[in-house]
């Protein structure tokens, strides 16, 4: 059952909502509530990488150690043409600056489980399944209504409810692609539009899948190296992940991503194998073979950020974290990382604001405005920066056609010849580049 009132209500228990809840508790905020529309364990595992800066932030809320023990430590993120290295982001070069000089490979499902276990150990459970359907401002805060008919009054409302955020929508915060100024979440295939027409207008979908592999696994697919292969059918990301926790045979899971098959809505084993064959160009007996698909999905790349990450509604404060505040291409594995860092930062900001509760009303309000503006400006600047970087990475790995492909491979190869470029790429992806974020 839901409480009638709470200091902070977090809507959404994905990685951002969970990290926000843990951050609030660790920073001494009492009486928080976190809800999710889904029963436990329903979200699919999307993100697979946690970068250095995020691990440092997770350490501050007591979650890093278990993740670091559970995940695989990749020292490099490499772009290859077949088995030849073009460019290699060298995370080991971060060693003098971070305790975590690697990209941590761990499934989003496990990251969420570990965050939720920490939350439970701090005495709070996620209340599920509870779907928020509306909210309105009151004199003291906001009043949130759920599908069940129950209502919670809250002082702080956190929208951690993903890219299609209802909280963002009701708060009236615009969400736009910085290039087009349009909300990409509102751009769907139209009725009667063919798949080709929709793809031409909205961009070709990508496939994401977790698979088991048999056959020969080339040396260039290994757990120290997050590898993307550029081939004639587009890019192929193929990365080993830890075995499923309930797999008695402990078989390595491989995360695979590539462009979707033109004109097809389904993801088939045959098509994924064709992409692998084209990307590696090896003789049949030296080729990795897809044994089974654990799960697969298609998605379109969209980029957008909220105009602001907080606003006032009535006497309440509404703030956004994670995909509710920004979305972008998965290139470079940045989305969940940004979301977790937003969430930990918001937890600290709300704790700071609540610590000023003894101030006079005007001073308290002024402090809250300044603190949340700081949070929003910093996090939004970071989101814009990541959108820019991931758009370039997506473009640079997605060109099709032989001439364009050769030119692209040459540019990657030329850039990758210098240690400076390889180290800079690692810095940008790690999140360490702009120290304070
Ligand atoms: C295909 C794909 C691949 C990706 N790969 C990567 C990657 O490699 N690396 C990376 O860092 N990121 C990646 N991402 C992005 C990453 O998955 C997201 O950034 C991350 O899940 C965002 O977390 P979140 O908590 O903000 O939102 P979500 O994970 O979307 O969670 C939102 C939660 O809110 C709940 N909710 C929604 N509406 C309501 C409501 N009205 N009431 C109650 N609850 C509600 C939902 O049930 C859900 O549990 C990928 C994304 C996609 C789609």
UniProtKB/TrEMBL annotation:
Annotated keywords: FAD, Flavoprotein, Oxidoreductase
SUPFAM superfamilies: FAD/NAD(P)-binding domain (SSF51905)
Listed name of the protein: FAD-binding domain-containing protein
Any GO MF annotation of the entry: FAD binding
Keyword Oxidoreductase tagged: yes
Residue ranges occupied by any FAD-binding domain in the UniProt entry: 6-180, 258-388
Stretches the record annotates as Disordered: 176-196
Comp. bias regions, Basic and acidic residues: 184-193
InterPro entries, alphabetized: FAD-bd, FAD/NAD-bd_sf, RIFMO-like
Cofactor: FAD
A Pfam family of this chain: FAD_binding_3
Superkingdom field: Eukaryota
């Amino acid at each position: 059952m839901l409480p009638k009132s709470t200091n902070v209500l977090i809507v959404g228990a994905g990685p951002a909502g969970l990290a926000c809840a843990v951050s609030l508790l660790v920073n001494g905020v009492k009486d928080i509530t976190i809800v999710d529309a889904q029963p436990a364990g329903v979200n699919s595992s999307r993100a697979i990488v946690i970068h250095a800066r995020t691990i440092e932030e997770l350490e501050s809320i007591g979650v890093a150690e278990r993740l670091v023990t559970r995940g695989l430590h990749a020292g490099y993120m490499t772009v290859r043409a077949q088995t030849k290295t073009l460019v290699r982001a060298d995370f080991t070069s971060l060693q003098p600056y971070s305790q975590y000089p690697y990209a941590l490979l761990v499934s989003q499902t496990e990251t969420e489980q570990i965050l939720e276990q920490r939350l439970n150990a701090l005495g709070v459970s996620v209340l599920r399944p509870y779907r928020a359907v509306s909210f309105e401002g009151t004199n003291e805060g906001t009043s949130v209504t759920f599908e069940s008919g129950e209502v919670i009054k809250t002082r702080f409302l956190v929208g951690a409810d993903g890219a299609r955020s209802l909280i963002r929508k009701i708060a009236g915060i615009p969400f736009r692609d910085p290039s087009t100024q349009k909300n990409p979440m509102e751009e769907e295939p139209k009725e009667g539009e063919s798949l080709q027409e929709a793809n031409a207008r909205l961009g070709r979908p990508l496939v994401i899948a977790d698979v088991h592999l048999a056959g020969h696994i080339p040396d260039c697919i290994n757990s120290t190296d997050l590898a993307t292969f550029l081939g004639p059918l587009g890019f192929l990301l193929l990365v080993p992940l830890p075995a499923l926790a309930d797999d008695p045979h402990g078989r390595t899971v491989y995360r695979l991503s590539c462009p979707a098959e033109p004109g097809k809505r389904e993801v088939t084993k045959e098509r994924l194998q064709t992409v692998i064959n084209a990307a590696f160009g090896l003789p049949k007996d030296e080729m990795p073979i897809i044994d089974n698909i654990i799960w697969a999905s298609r998605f379109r790349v969209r980029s957008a950020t909220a105009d602001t990450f907080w606003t006032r509604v009535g006497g309440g404060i509404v703030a956004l974290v994670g995909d509710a505040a920004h979305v972008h291409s998965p290139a470079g594995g940045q989305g969940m990382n940004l979301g977790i860092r937003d969430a930990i930062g918001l937890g600290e900001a709300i704790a700071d604001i609540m610590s000023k509760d003894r101030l006079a009303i005007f001073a308290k309000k002024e402090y809250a405005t300044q603190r949340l503006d700081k949070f929003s400006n910093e996090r939004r600047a970071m989101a814009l920066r990541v959108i820019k970087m991931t758009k370039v990475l997506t473009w640079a790995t997605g060109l099709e056609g032989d001439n364009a492909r050769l030119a692209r491979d040459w540019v990657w190869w030329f850039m990758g010849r210098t240690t400076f470029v390889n180290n800079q790429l690692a810095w940008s992806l790690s999140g360490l580049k702009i120290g304070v974020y």
